[in-house]
Amino acid sequence: MSHDTPTPKRPLLSSRSISRDLTASLVGIVLLVATAMAGYVYWQQSEEMWRKAEEKGEDTIASVAEILAVPIWNLDYDNARLIGSVYTHDDMVQGIRIYGSRNEVVFAHEKFSGVLADFSKVRSIVFEGRTIGRAEIDFTLTREKQQLDEQMLVSTLIIVVAISVILAITGLLLRIFLNKPLHVLQQGIARVAKGDFSYEFGEVRHTELIEIATRFRRMSAEIEAREKKLQAMNKTLQEAEEKYRGIFENAIEGILQATPDGVLRRANPAMARIFGYDSLDEFLSNVRSLGSRIMVNPDRMQDFYKQVRERGEIKRFEAEYYRRDGKTIWGSLNARAIYSDSGEIIFIEGILEDITDRKKAEQDLADLNRHLEQLVRERTEDLVNKARELEEANQRLRELDEMKSAFLSSVSHELRTPLTSILGFAKLLHKEFTRNYLPLAQNEPLLVKKGQRIQNNLLIISHEGERLTRLINDVLDLNKIESGSMGWRDERLNMSDIVETAVQSVTGLFSQNPQVGLVSEIDPALPVVIADPDRMQQVLINLLNNAAKFTDDGSVTVRAFPRFGQVRVEIADTGVGIHPEDQNRIFEKFHQTKTATMGDKPKGTGLGLTICREIVEHYSGRIWVESEPGKGSTFIFTLPSAS
User: Fold this and answer.
1) CATH of domain 489-640
2) 246-356: CATH homologous superfamily?
3) pTM (2 decimals)?
4) Which of 139-143, 414-418, 526-530, 624-628 is least confident?
5) How confident is the model over 277-305, as a mean pLDDT?
6) Exposed e or buried b for every residue in 195-231, given b needs 16+ CB within 10 A?
7) Are 488 and 535 in contact, with CB atoms under 8 Å apart?
8) What is the pLDDT at residue 566?
């Protein structure tokens, strides 16, 4: 018995025509564009109308205030009223009010009582710099608005006529160029659907429709090819199913399928082996669900179901289970929910892994960690005790350092007093010996020779005394800086003047060696810095003295210029240079470079550069050296500018 297949009803929207939709879309677009343009023109003309009205209103109120100045001043109110009545004939003027110097009403007139004015203007009446009254005018734009509305009505009618013409022409063109070719294409597709692939769509002339026909024939050929592929895929699917079945049966992990309430539907042999059963049938007959019978802690299973329902899956759900022989094992369960088309859970799939050995290893590791934690606590106590001892030793060192600073200060002061006397008497003896005693031995060569030796010895005493004085001063300065007792007299400094003064101070030193020139390149626009001028002079003179001491030929160049919000000062020489291994240690206390070309040059204290570094870093600056042996050195320091 055959049943006729009912013909499905066509949806309401399927009866729509492409030509009508295109025509309606075109009309809608034209309407939208025309409306937007009309609205823009209306807005622009309205703005222009208001602008001109404002200008005219401003001119009118200014003219009224100017003309009324003389009559109001002369109290000629009749003439003022006459002037006011003249302006009432203006179409824009809705009302005018003129007030005298005492705010009395001189003239008032309203054209339209009860109608709000579009805008108003108020202007004081001034005569010879004195305000003697005021004029108020209300303006209306009724006539201008009416003209603008009439213009927009005409524009709207023109747009409606234009749209009607476009609609008629568009419908005719679509019928010629679209409806007929589509009808031919529909007939061809119907024949192709019946299996007539020989239809060539000969009546179709448009490129787009020919492309559609070509693609439809290509689609038919692809359908036949896909059917063959589908058969091959079915065969592959069957093979994959057999392969999956083999994996399912031979897997090491337990694989299960259960209902949403935990009743087992399927399981693989590995599940039976994990729980100590000889066969899968025996396991399924004894273990019907994942419930309380095999769970050591049944409440954990409720947590399992809750997570599966909320998340749709659960990973590494670890729980303890009973085996058939009563022993317990640990299992890690990965499961996911399988949903129906309506979104309800159909069943739960899961993989159970026996992790008993891993749990035992974790327990052993936890015991080891506890043991290690105990050892760490004991070691920490030892370290705390050591830290306490170190703190006590550090406190003792600080006390010793303070004692050292006090000792150095005391000793340096005690040394300075006799040293000053020694230097003074040595210079006095040298002067007296040279003036009074050395001339007496002019005729005796032996006495002259001994006298010159005494003279040289006195010079050596003076030079060494001066070097010892410098050493004591440097030690005192460094001790003050390190102990924090240095008196810093900070002020706003013009670094151009400071550098120029330092250069002038060492001019005499460079005059002793005419083969070395002193060059200064100082930017006059150096920013201001906040520092102690004496300490800045000390840094510059120390660096210039070092440059002069280690330069036998060439020049020493002093550069000072602003850079990145800082003052950068460079002292570059063409002297012997500094070895790379000394460049990292040159600013350390008592460190002196070992240069083969120094010869008999006087040695310094080894504290000058250390003091320079301490001073520069005190003002948040930085000092360093760039040098190459045999090619000279450049000492550079930077100071932040005053904000």
Assistant:
1) 3.30.565.10
2) PAS domain (3.30.450.20)
3) 0.37
4) 414-418
5) 78
6) eeeebebeebeeeebeebbeebbeeeeeeeeeeeeee
7) yes
8) 92
